[in-house]
Design a protein that fits this description.
Elements (H helix, E strand, L loop, with lengths): L2 H15 L3 H13 L3 H13 L7 H13 L3 H13 L7 H12 L3 H11 L16 E4 L4 E4 L5 H11 L4 E2 L2 E4 L2 E3 L7 E5 L6 H14 L9 E6 L5 E4 L10 E8 L5 E2 L2 E3 L4 E3 L6 E5 L13 E3 L2 E3 L2 E9 L9
Length: about 325
């Protein structure tokens, strides 16, 4: 990479910070056309997030692939992730795993992902070979309990991946509007599409199999952290005024060395506190559109220790992205 290009990228980012997006974008685009890996990756990131340009995930994926070929390490991992999931383009699980093997040679976290995947019961195409079996513990709402849905190493991996990225949890206040309220005091870390690595992708496919749905119906996996005193007061996961409703919720308890923090179904009098790796899947609606009043639930306050939970909301139809 040429030092002059490095200076140009730094200048472009300064212009962005000062609000001069058009000037900054022009510099980055020119450097990308000159073949600079950092500029190509940055341009892809701008298209992915829709900054200074119309958001275009397909274009962003192409740029990430180009930056990967040019030797950009973050782009290399991002493109492997997208190749594994098929988000915004073709899915090539064997190709993604081959890339992951190469990345694992010099990256401890990628090596950890590879070890987890190699221990999973997957088909050569990365699908769940044996659907998880659960026990129905209640109907209307349907609540199914799965022992050992995730393994202890898988739970530890999710906790470790999420740790640097927690922010204060929000709730949906209205259609398209989220905000902070005292009813939800936890922190969360979304495993959004770009950072959904192959191991997390495989776990999301397991959640889809456990819930009897397709992977494409799920929102990004959310890792929740509850410290002493934190809670999520009684609420519904179904959303008001949306066409593609959250029909189901999947929860996996990532640890059990804490006190309190039960999942309480307040209208039917059932409290659940799973062991590490256990999960539940429950329905949120009556007809796929209207919320079920009996599905009201709460995350009770943690009284000691820290509770970690993986959550995935599942929609009635495909959600959020273009899939192959």
């Amino acid at each position: 990479m040429q030092p002059l290009v490095n200076l140009d990228i730094a200048k472009a980012l300064t212009l962005f910070a000062e609000g001069h997006h058009g000037e900054g974008f022009a510099i980055i685009e020119a450097a990308a056309q000159a073949g600079d890996a950092e500029a190509i990756f940055t341009l892809g990131d701008l298209y992915w997030r829709g900054l200074s340009v119309v958001q275009d995930h397909v274009r962003a994926r192409t740029l990430f692939a180009q930056a990967s070929d040019a030797g950009h390490p973050i782009a290399r991992r991002a493109y492997t992730n997208l190749l594994a999931s098929g988000i915004t383009g073709g899915r090539d699980w064997p190709g993604a795993i081959a890339r992951l093997r190469e990345e694992a040679r010099s990256d401890t976290r990628r090596a950890q992902m590879l070890a987890l995947i190699e221990a999973m019961p997957l088909t050569p195409s990365g699908f769940v070979s044996t659907p998880p079996k659960g026990q129905l513990i209640h109907s209307q709402p349907d609540i199914t309990y799965f022992q050992g849905l995730f393994t202890p190493p898988e739970c530890d991996f999710l906790i470790a991946v999420a740790e640097p990225t927690y922010t204060t949890s929000m709730v949906v206040l209205d259609v398209g509007r989220d905000g902070h309220t005292p009813m939800r005091t936890s922190s969360d870390a979304p495993m959004h599409w770009l950072i959904e690595d192959p191991a997390i992708h495989a776990l999301n496919r397991r959640l889809a199999a456990a819930s009897g749905t397709r992977y494409e119906q799920g929102e990004p996996l959310l890792i929740l952290r509850y410290r002493p005193g934190q809670e999520y007061k009684k609420h519904f996961d179904a959303l008001p005024g949306v066409e593609n409703q959250r029909i189901k919720t999947a929860l996996v308890y990532l640890n059990d060395d804490f006190d309190g923090g039960e999942t309480a179904f307040t209208q039917i009098g059932i409290n659940i506190r799973g062991k590490k790796g256990d999960g539940i899947v429950f329905t949120n609606t009556i007809d796929g559109k209207r919320h079920d009043p009996l599905a009201e639930h709460a995350g009770l306050p943690v009284t000691a220790g820290t509770k970690y939970l993986a959550s995935r909301w599942i929609r009635a139809a495909r959600h959020g992205q273009k899939f192959d």
